[in-house]
């Protein structure tokens, strides 16, 4: 076993296929930082770039990620990813506050949500798809529980008033204003979950992918007469131009995301953040402790599948989940902290510092994932 781990590490460290995406990631992020620092890029362009990525690039990437052939074995493997994701985020939402028990409630809530919910979509997916080309399906499935918790529990926690000013009331005791506010929060939560381009694209893609297992649905013959019949829901094969459109749109995702991340780093106060011991502690928890927790969970799940011979867990799925979890805090959590005035400066500075640490630790997590991935429970 040790020989296989050693061989895998040596092979990975000597391979440009690992170092090229990592160097490209760091270089383009630094370019975005430099262009914003030199005022060549206006800071307000960051929002436009993020909007393009979130509304166009990432939905195309999510949908395209599911447009591949499905099998019963791959379905079981991806269900393991999905259930592990739900378990991980449920645990993190609950335990993350205990890392900051001595802090006041607003700071505790903000730091806890920053730790629990990484920027898996904006930072994570472009990186893992560059590193592991066959990881897009697993990455998007892992994002399903992430988005459910991000737009529900995180929104509810971040939109709550401080404990000093909040008193739990029965519905009959609430004033009309409080009832309206409660309804508004509930409505916004549901809207955030269901009216989201990335989540819609993910669910549509998952349905297209999973329904290929329905007996008899693969009834459309290929246009060139070569290969196997396919499902009428496979729009990429039914109308080949759609495939080209998705490929083109998903291609804008990675460079724009990395440039915007660099601009975000320029916006934050890195010098101030580096002087704050609390932010260093939170950043280490974010980019080291949280990924370690999910890695241990994945090893447990993969071992269960391997030794019971019930399902397999792909090495690339494990690596994608770990690297995505090691990303800096989600932009949405930072937006919540600003909107509801919950330690917005702390959230902003934590994002800046943890983004820097995420870039530094990225090669380390790739190496760790490679070593762990050589264990017999991964395929």
From TrEMBL:
This is Malate permease. One of its GO terms (biological process) is transmembrane transport. Keywords: Cell membrane, Membrane, Transmembrane, Transmembrane helix, Transport. It is a multi-pass membrane protein. Belongs to the auxin efflux carrier (TC 2.A.69) family. Pfam families: Mem_trans. It comes from the Bacteria. It is found in: Cell membrane. The chain crosses the membrane at residues 16-36, 48-67, 79-99, 111-132, 144-159, 193-214, 245-266, 278-305, 317-338, 350-372. One of its GO terms (cellular component) is plasma membrane. InterPro entries: Mem_transp_PIN-like, Na+/solute_symporter_sf. The lineage of its organism: Bacteria, Bacillati, Mycoplasmatota, Mollicutes, Entomoplasmatales. Its main location: membrane.
